[in-house]
Amino acid sequence: MPEQPPYLRIADELRRRIAEHVWEPGDRLPSRAQIGQECGVGENVVRRAQELLISQGVLEGRAGSGTYVAEPRHRVRVVRSSAREQPNGSPFRADMKAVGRQGDWESRTDAKVPAPDDIAARLGIAEGELCVRTTYEFLADGRPIQLSTSWEPYDLTAGTLVVLPEGGPHAGAGVVNRMAAIGVTVSHAVEQPEPRQATAEEASLLGIQKAALVTHIRRTYYSDQGRPVETADIVVPAAHCEIVYEIPINR
């Protein structure tokens, strides 16, 4: 078995000290030089370990002050399940209500946006074909906890009452219900989650450290004819949210 990289070993040591209450939430950590001397590593190794723990929400860095043990946070549960599509209301609002929070979102829609190459491939259309793009900031008690950018083929909804996801009589109804309103049956969705570091823009919008750990979910809805009708990139901060998948069992 390959030897664990030094910075991961130091990260484990820092976690252990926090778990054993050597340092309490709000405590300022010793200098990197001091930690490095105690652990027999260089300051750059300590820096990488601290950056990892900051990205995971265990530590927090304060400009000009140092590195501190982060205050514990109650993570918001974000449920992913096709069974949660509702004829009325929002699954997100229902999730937030279940944990005693007020769920809401802000959005911006741009119609007739040329599809970039990766989005075109996911939607099964040619690069540059027109799409309706909607960006979302999902809020819990007014605080952003999830970002999403949604793309729908313009030719699918053009001239209908659902062409704008957040406009008209079906505003905010969700992809499944909006597509049903124009006679398109959504049969299933495919989601591909993967961890990565937040971009500077994402960190700013979510109020997290730059390069903090997030879960990036690529989701695509398909019609019963096999056509992709919507694809989205969903970004959830790992330190603030836990993602749970519900798997319906058909008997």
Identify the notable features of this structure and list them briefly:
251 residues; alpha+beta; six-stranded antiparallel beta sheet; two-stranded antiparallel ribbon; 8 helices; elongated; Tscrpt_reg_HTH_GntR; UTRA; Bact_HTH_transcr_reg
Describe what this molecule looks like in 3D.
- With 251 residues, this protein is α+β, with helices and mostly antiparallel strands.
- The protein contains eight helices and ten strands.
- It has helices at 6-19, 32-39, 43-55, 91-98, 117-123, 154-157, 175-181, 200-206; strands at residues 59-62, 66-69, 76-80, 103-114, 130-140, 143-153, 186-197, 213-223, 228-237, 241-245.
- The strands form three sheets. A six-stranded antiparallel sheet has the order 4-5-6-9-8-7. It has a two-stranded antiparallel ribbon with strand order 1-2. A two-stranded parallel ribbon has the order 3-10.
- Helix 1 (6-19) packs across helix 3.
- The longest helix has 14 residues, at 6-19.
- The mean pLDDT is 89.
